[in-house]
Structure formats: C-alpha cells, structure tokens
Amino acid sequence: MRYALINGERHEAEPRLVGTCPGCAQAMVAKCGDQRIHHWAHKGMRVCDPWWEPETPWHRAWKREFEDAWQEVILHDELAEKHIADVRTDHGLVLEFQHSHISPLERSREAFYRNMAWIVDGTRRKRDLPRFIDGHRSLRPSPWRGIYTTPFPQECFPSDWLDRAVPVFFDFAGMEPLDQRAGIERCLLWGLLPGRADGHARHRRSCPPTSRCGGAHPAPDRSGPRDRRHPWLPVS
Predict the structure, then answer these.
(1) Do 109 and 210 share a structural domain?
(2) Residues 109 and 16 in one domain
(3) Residue pLDDT, tens place only, 146-171
(4) Contacts 24+ apart (CB under 8 A), 212-219
(5) How would residue 73 be classed by pLDDT, with cut points 50, 70 and 90?
C-alpha cells in the first residue's frame, strides 16, 4: 500500500517508520528496499483485503495522476464487506489498476463497486499488443467521436477481459517509451465498453493524463459529464 496511518494521518513509506493500516487498524511496517517501490506492508503475512495485489511502478505511476485523497479509499457495502479502491473520484467513480492475472473471484469487484472501470496493463503479456495491432483493422467508426465497433472483439483484446459489466481500458504504453507501430498511438487508452451495438462490441479511445503525446489526441465525446481535472475520464 502507498499509505499507512501515523498519529491518525496518512503517510507514505519511509525507512524505519511504523504505522497502522487504515483498513484493519493492524500494525504496518515501511518497506524501503532497492528491489521494489517503497510501500507499506502488514506485519507477518496478514492481508486485510483479498483483492489487493503488490504494487508495481506501473500501479504507482497511475495512482499519482490523481489527488492523494482519491487514492486507497476504503469502501463498505450494506453487508459491511470492506475493500480498498485504488482510486475513487469525488464523483464516486472507482478505478482499479490491474497488472497481474485476475481470477473470477477478483472480478466480483464489479458487483461490489458498481460504478467503476478497469485500467489494465496491456504490456504484461507479450501477445496482447501484437494482437491489438493485428485486430484493430476490424474497428469501424461510429457516429460518436472516438467510439468504434467491431464484430470480432476477441481479435483485439484478451479473452479474459471480454464481456465485462464495466468499461475496461488497456494501457499499451505501460512504462515503455512511446513508439508508432502500424498506426497505433500507444499513448492512447483503448477501452472495451460493456454491451453491444447491433451485435458488435464497442471500443473507445482516450488520451489519458499519463500520455506522452502532450495531449495531441483530444479526449473523445465530451458530451457527457466529465471530471474537471481529468477530462478523459467519465464521472459515471
């Protein structure tokens, strides 16, 4: 985790600090080695949120694009189940950043958070970017700017992310320098939207704050409500 509580205030990990977990109130120690990014960990092997995964530099870079108060927000449902959202905006939209393989159980986050979107590291598996480069030729423009349809979503995106109930955005740039391959701007996020349009899957492209194009690709379809600091991001 990026934050622990010290005297009731959130602090990032620094050498020799000891804090408490904001989720379970148990002791946490600062891990500040050379192999991984600085982070907080529970003493022993305790994990208070089964959905939590070790953070990578990719995770941390995405989190830092948002206000500190939006990061690692603890949420409860009506049955008192508790989880820590990677980011929750002040409009109530949850963003979950996923680097590793995700199990069917972990996908239950969609039912828990409801108003959420995934951002997936599209560079983790070697096949994902080449698949998208080959499959994007099936994308067809729609009447809405930045929205495309395809009858063959499986030719563009990994099968384990098809037919999700919430939007899934793929970050094909990852932590690598920007390059141009087959006309694909890797600075863009390419999203798979839930549902179908005339039997076709719907795709969206957006230029996120982490892009290396300096905003050269404007965010599509600004007709709906948007977050004021992150105009590429729908608020609900």
Answers:
(1) yes
(2) no
(3) 888 888 889 888 988 888 889 999 99
(4) 212/173, 212/177, 212/178, 212/187, 213/178, 213/185, 213/187, 216/187, 217/185, 217/187, 217/188, 219/146
(5) very high
Q: Which amino acid is at 59?
A: H
CA-to-CA dists, residue 104 to 23, 95, 229, angstroms: 24, 18, 33
Pairing of β 168-171 and β 189-197: antiparallel
Report the alpha-carbon distance of residue 208 to residue 205 in Å, rounded: 9
Report pTM: 0.75
Q: Please, which residues have CB within 8 angstroms of residue 122's CB and are 6 or more apart in sequence?
A: 128, 129, 132, 170, 171, 172, 174, 190
Same domain, 71 and 33: no
175-206 pLDDT, tens digit per residue, is 554 445 445 555 578 888 887 666 666 667 66
State the pairing for strand pair 180-181/184-185. Answer: antiparallel
H helix or E strand, kind and range, residue 109: helix 109-113
